[in-house]
Amino acid sequence: MKIQVCTILHAAFALASLASADATKPSFPDMQGQLVADQLDARTVAVIAARYTANFDEQGARFAPFLGATNSKQHELRMRLASATIGEQAIEVVRDAGATLVAGKASFERGLVDEVYELSADTIEQTFVVEKHPGAGDLRLRVDIDTQLEPRVEGAGYAFRDADGEGASFGAAAVRNADGSLTSVPSRLVEGGVEIIVPQGLLDAASYPLVIDPVVSALAIDNGASIATEADAAYDLSTNTWTVVYQVQAGAGNGDVYCRIYNASTMALRASRIIDASLEDWTNPKIANSRAGSRNLVVATRDSAFAAAAIVGRFVYPVNNDVGPVGLISTGSMDCYNADIGGSSGTSSAGAQFCVAYSRSFSEFRVDVVAKRLSLNGTAVGAESVVSGGTEQFNERPAVSNVHDGSGWAIAFERMGWDASGPFCNQVWGSQVSLAGAVLGPVAVSMLAADRANDHDTASVCVLPRVGPNMRWFVGYTRRVASNPDVELVSLDGLAIRARSSAHAVRAASAALFEAQPSLAFAGGSSIALAFTSTTAAGVGARIIYMRVPIVTFGILAGSFGTANNTTYVSPLGEACVQPTVASRLENGATGNADFLVAWTVQGLLDIRGVLFRAL
Length: 616
Fold this sequence. Notes:
- A hairpin with an 8-residue loop joins strand 41 (455-463) and strand 42.
- This protein is 2% helix and 57% strand.
- It is mostly beta strands and 616 residues long.
- The protein starts with a strand and ends with a strand.
């Protein structure tokens, strides 16, 4: 029997772009997704990887995160299992053991408790293997960490950073049983290191081997010389993978689209695929998943000097990391643009559909938002549906719920319009589209008499599983009052608005903040996941905040938001971050862990970064 206790260590400061590499400063070769490990002698292992270097010898593990080609600072952490106790009794630990490299793991045989480091290109997973039940009492493992960086609690784990926010971070811990189920266990900062505690009850009841897994992993999705923006993400249950799609600017008027597929258990990169690298201009990519058929559909706007702008799509198959041919989704001679897509979490292929919504120019005075349903092979299901009402208004930038609720999708969009009182600023509206193509709505989500002069934009939408006759859905958007943006949340039961509150108020923040660009996803139970930008002053680099928002008395959708939990800054201090997106594992029919992937664009560097949250 073995007990395995592990956390993941990763370079927490996102990598600087390699576009402006300075040969006089330390830099790695282009090793995206690569790792080289070598047994230098009988007791020493050396590693160079895309995001770090490491050395393992009698002194323990030495870890140095790579902070980018233009960063001259060198930060190092030395780690070693210092002690282990069961109850009040010490377990002997061989402190000067040498390291051996076997099957991608650097191992120290320290007695009853071995210390093993599982290596990947982006992270190191620190594992402690206990050969037999250690006895009565709680198991406590103390890891010494020697570094000049300052320790701090951060999110669900802890970090070691300098004054600029650079350094490395650890995920929090949870026990993973042989059947894959998870149980959280305490891990905490102590003087000079970290302590992990496995309670006696868990040791006694556990099926073996027992693994303590990380809660947070960082991703450098695209940190090369390219100009990368506009990330979106989807989860596939059957292959247990995340796929992230994003835009790369290849030249003036030439946007390309790429995607990366990650193993959801380890967040190791499985494959990189090109969605478009033609001379045409592909922009604003979005992605959604169908559980039935185990496939993702990527949509984008294709612009050409010789034809109207059109919506195109391409399937991505995580089963074999393959992509399908390019398909034309919009039809006609009018410009179509700014598409979004929703998928399906159902298990039956017969009723599985995608819903693509986009803006279509109807006339000089009218832009509609239309929805088109597609089958699993990309063919149209029925006719297009106009979801914006079909009046002389400008309706743009639709957002579709990532999946349908069993009966249909929710769609939110921006409207610039006018009435008898004259023109007014952008407002957010919403509609529902059934699996048969019927439209319910539109309804004014942000349209309040006192808000005619305030813009409302960058909408996002999600739905909860249906339990009654009406759709339960949520819309988040940016509300701009006197150039001071705030993220507002609205819950709806059918077309009836039940609650309205700002993210600022939900998390009880007291400082004056500029918050914008929300992204929503279903978080399980009666809560939603929310990611958005936040900064203390206009024009100052925004950071990305992730939070879970509980819905109080949600059984009848009474309409009150609770206090946010798991509120975390996910992007590093000092970087200006925009365009966040959040995707949820639970939206695609999964049960158990509420895993969320948050991705965003780093301004200036124009890189794509991400963080995986494993909420226990």
